[in-house]
Amino acid sequence: MTTYDPNNIFAKILAGDIPSVKLYEDDDTLAFMDVMPQAPGHLLVIPKQGSRNLLDADPAVLSKLIPVVQKLANAVKDAFDADGVYVAQFNEAAAGQTVFHLHFHVIPRHDGLPLKPHTGGMENIDVLKANAEKIKAAL
Ligand code: 5GP
Fold first, then answer.
1. Is the CB–ligand 1 distance for residue 123 below 6 Å?
2. What spacing in Å lies between the alpha carbon of 102 and ligand 1's midpoint?
3. Catalytic one among 42, 101, 103, 105?
């Protein structure tokens, strides 16, 4: 299937049908904590308009989304006193995509500290909430 499925899990988060730990929202964009973080502070940025990924996204949507990715990358770098920030985005299963609503991963990186595996263990909700508060405070 290569069309957008409006029943994907991030569409359900946008609709409020399943919970998420949100840290940023505007008219076009939502950011929330990844439930299986590869490092503390791992967040996801999604457009409210549905597309499977970057390949079928409306450029007008991207033009609003990318400044938010930048803003949150700077915020997470400050909040976690990081040495760098990893921004990742996968297109289709062959590239590692598992949720088919466009999203950017934003992950603070520290020198010498490896990332945990992609879609590894679930983090405790209170830890996610505390990390979201740290990022919000840096916005
Ligand atoms: P992808 O491989 O599609 O780029 O990554 C999807 C990401 O979404 C993974 O990092 C995974 O941990 C995260 N994820 C999957 N299901 C949920 C969920 O229900 N809530 C949240 N907050 N993150 C999720």
1. no
2. 11
3. 103
Q: How far is the CA of 87 from the centre of ligand 1 (A)?
A: 14
The secondary structure of 4-25 as a DSSP string is: --TTSHHHHHHHTSS---EEEE
Query: pLDDT digits over 25-50, tens only?
Result: 999 999 999 999 999 999 999 999 99
Residue 2 lies in a domain: no
**CATH at 67:** 3.30.428.10
Q: How many domains does the chain have?
A: 1
Range of the domain at 98: 9-138
pTM: 0.97
Q: Is 101 a catalytic residue?
A: no
- Alpha-carbon dihedral 129, 41, 18, 9, rounded to 10 degrees: 180
- 104-131 pLDDT tens trace: 999 999 999 999 998 888 999 999 999 9
**Is 91 within a domain?**
yes
Quick check: 40 and 130 in contact, CB under 8 A?
no
